[in-house]
């Protein structure tokens, strides 16, 4: 959201505020005054918690009135029971001018699930970077934060849709990420003394209190050089933000890891109990990030990652991905030689079906998507509509005419499996078959579901597994093309060609070697991650002077 605001070149002032905060008319006056400041500035204000709001908007919505209809003036003294919403990131209002100018000099962390400690991290980085005038306008009372909402969110904190409690695993990871990628909770160099200006109001004028210098040694030091402990300074000058812009030790320990699969499933599953599963090892971690960035861009939030090795697990944690470690994965995963046909490839593929079976047994539907599958849209609604006891899988057939359910043409790199008895039993058969096979898991899918040599085929695009009555649907290749279908990857504009077909995805298979896959995807403009900045790309195009972030 901040990045989008910074890209709004026609905007003079940006305001970032939680939706539950009630903004007061005072904020309009304050921003009008601050817009006249010569230079770049950043303003932060803590809202006031209100236990029992006694006011409501007039019918016209233009002003606030009391229960007796009398108009309220918030420029008068604020009631004593309206305390500032200290202790969390709730109720924080941030505003800044000149969005084309940078806010801070830090590197934005990949906050886990997009929730957690971002607000205080951003405020701290802006202050520490000394690129803008920093104002604490909490005493102006720019917004109200209803205590009833605060209490409700506290109850919701343990649910997957609620805020993160300060003791949660994710909060610890976010705290760790903020420390790793910025100066949050870390000591600043002794030579740096960022300035914090406290804004107060006298009559109708805005004034600045004396300028204080903020350091990371748990003290504020005034211009006269007198050291004040944080508590004493807060009592003397009521500097609302002091305890939060420095408030932790100089060393930050790593969070308590790992997170269990069942806990992740409960957090990320959608309303239908479905998840998207990606599996990757260290050789494919950049492709994993491009895949995850694409899903985030499509607002597909119900995905999780199975890490095949500890390096990928740590990498995914630092990139803010919902990830779990598979303890039974092979330990000899090659970085460059784990492509189709290799022994490494055979071992890795057998992990996927075993993990899918485990998730199905836990009661969740699974869309297994290899990380070399590029998504143009979200196929989940279409796949879910296939119905119970139906298994939808991509066809690997490359001939443009004829049956698409021919022997060994079921692609196990993209399929949707429901958590029903028929599918679970069939997956158990597949895992058992693959365990005793010297091949990858892909032939086991076809031989179990469609029968050896296709004895269970129905028509040109289906199979019926006789023991479970599980129907296998080979997905329309115009919507779910493989890497050899119609030569789509060789088209001049892959995206436009696939859009004409109505593609949901395109698989980057039928090509050997990791480097070739990465190069083909990048030169086609279907790449969404920049590893140099550790950020998702808004929109990367192969026409950008032919530049490729890396190979």
From TrEMBL:
InterPro entries: Nucl-diP-sugar_transferase (IPR005069), RAY1-like (IPR044575). Residues 300-520 form the Nucleotide-diphospho-sugar transferase domain. It comes from the Eukaryota. GO terms for molecular function: glycosyltransferase activity. PANTHER family: BETA-ARABINOFURANOSYLTRANSFERASE RAY1. This is Nucleotide-diphospho-sugar transferase domain-containing protein.
